[in-house]
Each structure stands twice: as structure tokens, then as C-alpha cells.
Amino acid sequence: SVLVSILGIFVLHWFHPSPYTFWLFGAALLQSFTSVHHMVLVGRNSLLQYNIGTALQPLLNLAYVYFFFECCGLKTLEVFVEGFFYSSLGTYTVSIFQSMRFYSSIGLVELRQTLRDMVRFGSGTYFSTIVQTINYRVSYYVLFWFGLSKAVGEMSNGVALAEATWMISNSLSLVLYAHILNNDNEKEQQLL
């Protein structure tokens, strides 16, 4: 996640230098680390804590932006980007406390193997998600390039519907994964 964040921010800064680049790098890095903690919660069947942690970032961001936009009258892009960073930092901090109790039970040898497995299995999933996202986003530009601006709107609606459907199936898969992982009965594991 560190390497991907560095590479992504480097490419972003190379093609479009911005004062927000490092804020976004920090937020991306914090979200990567938070994601690891959230997967630990899922792996230990602590789904309520996972759901709280997942909902926390947008709520913190909304509160930050609302405060500065409405209460202070600072309606700027800087406030929004800083809010994104600080909400990511807050979520990361909470995720440390949520998952800390599970780390003490992992030995150094198990931790190495776990990290290896995370890199091996996670990188494939991560890569496929990036390709899928790029595929849809590039489709917008291709349609617009050929002058099919009406089709861009239709494509956007279709992608939003597909992503909503995938979100439901991903949530169900995550819950089933947690139940399978934490179930000692082999027959029940196979049924799930």
C-alpha cells in the first residue's frame, strides 16, 4: 500500500502538480493502513466494529467540512482536502484501538506469514479492482471522445447501478468469509 500510494501520488504530481498532492498521499496511505486493520476485524468476526470503522470516515469528513463551510464560512477546496485527510487520520486512529487486541495474539513467525499472504493474495485483488475502476472511467472519456456525450450520462447511471450491486455482493461475501473463517465446524464451513 505504501508503494502504490507513492507511485499514484508521483504520477498525479508529475502530470498535474498540485498543492494538494501530499495531503492526498497522506490520506491514501492512512486509508491503506486503516484497511488492513479493518480486515483484521473481519477476520476476527468483529463485524460491528468493522461497520463502525467503515462509516466513521465519511461522517468525520462531513462534520469537518460542515463546520468549516457553514460555521466558519470557509468554502474552499483546501478545507475539503484537509477534511479528507483529517477524517482519514481520525479513522486510522480509531482502527488502531479497534484492532489492537487482536495483534497481541499473533507471534512474529505468524505475522511474517500473514504479511506474505496479504501481499500475495491482496495484490491480485487490488490490481483487479484498479483495472476494473480504470476500465469504467476510461470508458467515459472514450464515449466523450467520439462525441457521444448523451451516452456518457447513460454509462454513468449504468456504472452506478453495477457498483451498487457489487457493493451488496461484496458485503454479503465479507460476512460469509468472516463466518467461515471463525467457524470450527468443517461441515458448516462447507455449507457456507
Task: Outline the structure in words.
It is a single chain. This protein is an all-alpha fold. The protein folds into 2 domains: 105 residues, no CATH class; 85 residues, no CATH class. It is 86% helix and 0% strand. Helix 2 runs parallel beside helix 4. The radius of gyration is 20 Å and the shape is globular. The model has no long low-confidence stretch (mean pLDDT 77).
According to DSSP, the number of beta strands is 0
The domain tally reads 2
Q: How confident overall, as mean pLDDT?
A: 77
Structural class of the secondary structure composition? mainly alpha
What fraction of the residues are assigned to beta strands by DSSP?
A: under 5%
Describe the structure using short key phrases.
single chain; 192 residues; mainly alpha; 2 domains; 86% helix; 0% strand
Short summary:
The chain has helices at 2-15, 21-43, 47-71, 77-103, 108-145, 149-181, 186-191. The chain is mostly helical and 192 residues long.
Secondary-structure topology with pairs:
Blueprint: H1 2-15, H2 21-43, H3 47-71, H4 77-103, H5 108-145, H6 149-181, H7 186-191
Helix pairs in contact: 1-2, 2-3, 2-4, 3-4, 5-6
